[in-house]
Amino acid sequence: MVGKRHHGSSNMAVLLQSQGMYKEFSGPLFAPGTPSGGSLDLKDGHGNSLERPLFRPVELDEIGDDDSGEYPHQPDKKRRLTTCQVQFLEKSFELENKLEPERKLQIAKVLGLKPRQIAVWFQNRRARWKTKQIEKDYESLKSSYDALKMDHDSLVKEKEDLKAEVLSLTKRLLKEENGSLESFEPKRLPDNLQNLDSTLAFEVKKLHGQTMLCKQEDISSANSAILDSESPHHAHEGDCSMLMELNSYSNAFRLHHSDHSQIGDVDDVKHCNFLSPEDTSCGSEFHVAEQVFWLWP
DNA sequence: CTTGTCAAAGGGGCTT
DNA sequence: AAGCCCCTTTGACAAG
Known about the structure:
The protein has 297 residues and is mostly helical. It contains eleven helices and two strands; from the N terminus they run βααβααααααααα. The longest helix has 66 residues, at 115-180.
């Protein structure tokens, strides 16, 4: 094929057909009256007339990977590609963003550019595509994050509201019960509690003064409701701690009244710790076990 | 004058 | 070693 002349439009047609792009490019690139390898009144990206030949007749032996070859129609300055060249390259990029050597030569031949220029254009185009892709991914991740954050914030608010409601109801309950038990004044601890370990006794005495103002069974049931909604291992922390302390003695006191042998002996109290939360038959005894356990040094 | 975009070059790493 | 790719930088150019 040495010495054979290749005119731009015929090369273009072959390449476009091979790439399935002939139809799309029959307009701008093959306008009626446009001579093969002639010039078009091209505009660059900013609407300026470029007045550059679209296709330079290329000798085949001029094409090669030797990038040092002379390029007489383009000064040694960086020049923008014509709109049509860019459009063709874009279409080609859409089909395949990688550039096989054969395709590179074909495109270079068709557009009258050096193969090196085609390779460079594809490299730069891939870089732009990657940047756009990163921006898209960022937007996608950002919208996911925003949605999750809104969800999270609303859940946090709901949790705070519920906590406030529990606290308010608990205070109200205690206040009401205090009013109805004003006349109830315990004089001293039950005798069997005097035998407890001194630390426990101190705690129990401390609670004793607070608790005896309350009606035992009602507070126990209120406490049970809270315990049912919280993990037993965390119930002694936070908002329920006061009620827990109050109830710990109230339950112990109730047990004492029903059966002196159960709480009069330390070993018996510790035995209660083995009651399982799932053992519903234990009922309030389980709560007693939990609460006494926390009080134990 | 500054800024943004694009074509191109240079360098390093990888594959064949 | 050649060729390719990616990343970064450079230079030209246009717009504000």
